Amino acid sequence: MQFVNEQITPEAQALHRESLVIDTHADSIQCVLEGRRLGVRSDQGQFDLPRALEGGISAEFTAIYLRTPRAGAVHQAVQFVDALHQEVEAFPNMALQATRADDILRAKQEGKVALVLTMEGAEGLEGDLRSLRVFHRLGLRSLGLTWNWRNEAADGVDEIRTGGGLTQFGVSLVKECNHLGILLDMAHLSPAGVRDVLELSEAPVIVTHANCAALCPHPRNLTDTQLEAVASKGGVVGVTAVPRFLGEEESRCPLSLLLDHIDHMVKVVGEDSVGMGTDFDGVGENRVVGLEDASKMPSLTAGLLQRGYSPERIRKILGGNFLRVFRQVVG
Ligand SMILES: [Zn+2]
Q: 9-21+66-77+117-322: CATH homologous superfamily?
């Protein structure tokens, strides 16, 4: 199926507009640090508030991600937090910072985008639980333990030679996140780490951006067994719009491929554990055709309708499932 935006039916538009749309991963704060403003529509990158509002996005998880963590990582992370706070303050008509599930609903009601502060890799904590507690007070509501490498908390997916999972600090982090009400995100985590978190966490866990290994055997993707384990704890996995995790690295990646991953995930874990985590502003230049930036989110609804998904199922995948787990874990 070659699906393009012009084919979005009035029915799909209406369903998309009334739905809560939660996208669980974007690297847009990095773009702010590099000079872009979230409140100003840009033709650079993929996410800003005008494009998000056009695309009907109710909530966006925006990550602290330290490319070159080193001594002073807490200070680097603070710069991300400040950038997010500054953007929310500068554009109050378009954004609010969400720290509770009700904030996401309020953003939807008020026609704004709820920005959720997340951390992708625990590097920014410098191995200290006190940093986690302070970032929580600043609004941190989701923590990915690793990016692809080894850090103080655990091994990432590119560090699997030794078969390592969580460190002792990682175990403490899981417990403290459970205690504070911070979502644990297993995207980028090594298979042993995933096993550890699933075993240790008393709360449902999420994977903010990953796809199905059964369709694309990339180490960043989840096996059916892992998907089932996340679902059995009441968690949700965000299907991600990264062509190389969908199985199309070289040429144009059709939206149908992303829909195939949603189909597979729904088949394996059911409709209550699947969501969306695009990785806007982290994808690079090769993008899913039809979902090139935040303004194109209605294509997803149109594509799911075309595949015969009921409106109820579509609302769960677009945001209902992540809202449920957010309310349960964060409050
Ligand atoms: Zn990532």
A: Metal-dependent hydrolases (3.20.20.140)
